[in-house]
Automatic annotation (TrEMBL), chains A, B:
Keywords: Carboxypeptidase, Endoplasmic reticulum, Glycoprotein, Golgi apparatus, Hydrolase, Lysosome, Metal-binding, Metalloprotease, Protease, Secreted, Signal, Zinc, Zymogen. Residues 256-444 form the Peptidase M28 domain. The keyword Endoplasmic reticulum applies. PANTHER family: CARBOXYPEPTIDASE Q, PROTEASE FAMILY M28 PLASMA GLUTAMATE CARBOXYPEPTIDASE-RELATED. This is Carboxypeptidase Q. Homodimer. The monomeric form is inactive while the homodimer is active. The lineage of its organism: Bacteria, Pseudomonadati, Bacteroidota, Cytophagia, Cytophagales. It is found in: Endoplasmic reticulum; Golgi apparatus; Lysosome; Secreted. The keyword Signal applies.
Amino acid sequence: MKKFLLALAFVPSLAFGQNHESNLRKIYDAELSSGHTYENLRYLCKVVGNRLAGSPGAAAAVEWTKQLMESYDFDTVYLQPVMVPHWERGGKDMVKIVNSEKHGTVELNALALGNTQGTGAKGLVGEVVEVKSIPELQSLGEKVKGKIVFFNGPMDPKLIDTFQAYGGANAQRSSGAAEASKLGAIGTLVRSLSNTINDIPHTGNQRYNPDFPKIPALAISTADAELLSQLLADQKDLKVYLESHGEMKTEKLSYNVIGEIRGTEKPEEIIAVGGHLDSWDVGEGAHDDGAGCMQAIEVLRLYKQLGWKPKRTIRAVMWMNEENGLRGGQEYARVAKEKGEKHIAALESDSGGFLPIGFSSSGTEAQRGKLTSWADLLRPYQLWSLDRPGGGADIGPLRDQGPILIGLKPDSQRYFYYHHTEADVFEAVDQRELELGAAAMAALVHLIEQEGI
Amino acid sequence: MKKFLLALAFVPSLAFGQNHESNLRKIYDAELSSGHTYENLRYLCKVVGNRLAGSPGAAAAVEWTKQLMESYDFDTVYLQPVMVPHWERGGKDMVKIVNSEKHGTVELNALALGNTQGTGAKGLVGEVVEVKSIPELQSLGEKVKGKIVFFNGPMDPKLIDTFQAYGGANAQRSSGAAEASKLGAIGTLVRSLSNTINDIPHTGNQRYNPDFPKIPALAISTADAELLSQLLADQKDLKVYLESHGEMKTEKLSYNVIGEIRGTEKPEEIIAVGGHLDSWDVGEGAHDDGAGCMQAIEVLRLYKQLGWKPKRTIRAVMWMNEENGLRGGQEYARVAKEKGEKHIAALESDSGGFLPIGFSSSGTEAQRGKLTSWADLLRPYQLWSLDRPGGGADIGPLRDQGPILIGLKPDSQRYFYYHHTEADVFEAVDQRELELGAAAMAALVHLIEQEGI
């Protein structure tokens, strides 16, 4: 009997590798009955709070996630330095219609876009020109000179995957100010990128063109965008006052936070699993992307709880500065190449802590074929969507090093209600949906570390 | 040209029947960009409110849904009389631990189960015996005599489909009091049927055994069930005070509310689509089952909006009294048989207004094969689960008349947070998820009315 047990002890990876189906069940059972993901997310949201790159919140998040992974006794936990942009909102953003014939002065729900240069306390006033898109702006040419351009392109509600609708509408947010400035506009307003008509403004990244003035760029809520559009239809000389206080400060030193469990058979083959640790400076960054970070740590923690040792190295990575720079993802890839590391797969969760429906991926036909070959193992967990292209912003820079890039794919219906807003708080996350995401990631990582890809 | 248009006008059903794929897209486009489901649900929840069978709220719901369907100009709208039980809660339910050595008196969050005979203002006090299930109760036999039985069987968090976990735990709620009374218990407490540990008590139906005393049966919140269990572990003589005021009154006349659009080619073949109009007397019955009712009406409204006439008759049915009697479903089936109606399919939505992932069904192999043959048409709308058995409580009585019985299958992760509680309100429903459910039902009804099943 003793001999038999010893024999088993010598082949632990075989013992649990022989039955993927049963191991996936163990992962789900452990996560759904004793997972840490939800309580860890509560701490990140409620104690650390929001954490834009360069902010004290981001520093606290770095320190806390490092300590958390150390407390789980992963093989290695370390910080990877990275210089990040440091933008501060600087004060309350304000947008007011000042001369409505119907309503007089009307204050709109507004939030400056990230990286925006503020107007300062003096603000600015201008007439408003409404467009639905950047091409429409460009067709107006000189007519927007001296005006405030109001981008009012809605997300297309007819698209089932709301990320496609987001993709179709976000150029006006990310490049609207740059394009309007080229034509001499003095400021921009942008309809919040949301499927819902309500009063919550959504911030997000925008990039100036360095050859043109940095004009203020503010989001207004969808309800206020509808109102402004209606008032403009009746009154062409409508004027709006903008005030914002954003400032890009000098770069700061920050960190990617990394924890790993070394592989027993092929430790040089690395599977990165992660999310981005930074968030916008409103709300708590619960869905975007506290959820992904806590899920990634949970993948490794489940290995510890189950007493498993992976064949290949599993590495949890909290990337810094996805929201307004992507410096963390870029630095991680640069260092990996410099060190000659071999990533075979990188899995990012950055689409919210909602019900997982599968994985999207980018890679070779062989890599993607391997992923879809696991369909029957994943389907009992409602992971049915395995063939869509995708990946993740932070893992994108790894592409030329050859790993398959994979994105956890949650259902997208509710994401753009919360995205980049004060509403993206812990309470907006459902425990079971979050846990199913963590278990889905652990299940896929398990298959990859066992079989390679 | 005129001739050509006339020719088209004579074959409208062919014109839109030739391309299911394009018609399904039209249904989804219409619903997601100009659906009425969400605003109708808002009215039902916020103006009508909750609506237990026999209550004024139920009468208001009957009248309002009838008027709503008339306003949409369906071919026929009528009420089908049905006698329903009329239970009233009668006052505030109360559960208190009265002699905790640790905490003295502790009030627990409680809600009497439906159909429960109250204690009246005098209440009752007794020692508590904890069990996890009815078999465990039965193994105790006479030991529960004169005691309050506390059923503390949790829903199994490891099951992915939470309805399975509900099914595994609900006997203690539905039959616990009847079984405990047989053994001489004086009252029962039951752990709320929820996946979440919190302070919200969940009511629900329970049935007495007419040969034994009708002892009070109250649910307590999951957090309080955990607390009570912990205290009992340390103090065996713990006593609890119960007070409730429920009373079963004389039966009332109520109605199923029915609206239909007659088929152009086979009007005698009926496709029923519906939900149950009654709800529990707490919250607003938003997910259970205002959502299903508003989705069913929307199926017919979409036909009007799109200018379509179905080949077979489509009938929206709001069944009355699913929660504590099922009289509406039984009467509907009885009348259908009496009239010699021919139902080819019945589709119920009664699993919440959450993200639809497919349909469950019961029927012949041929019927179910026809349903799954549409998989490629439904998959673009994320309707991937078509092979699970199922149906719906209200359509069950139609079974022996031969239709395929179909249940809309939304994802189940969040349902038991809200189910039968004060938290089941309009705000708990996501607009897009609700609309996707309505569109899914319209899509399936369209395929059935075109092709038969």
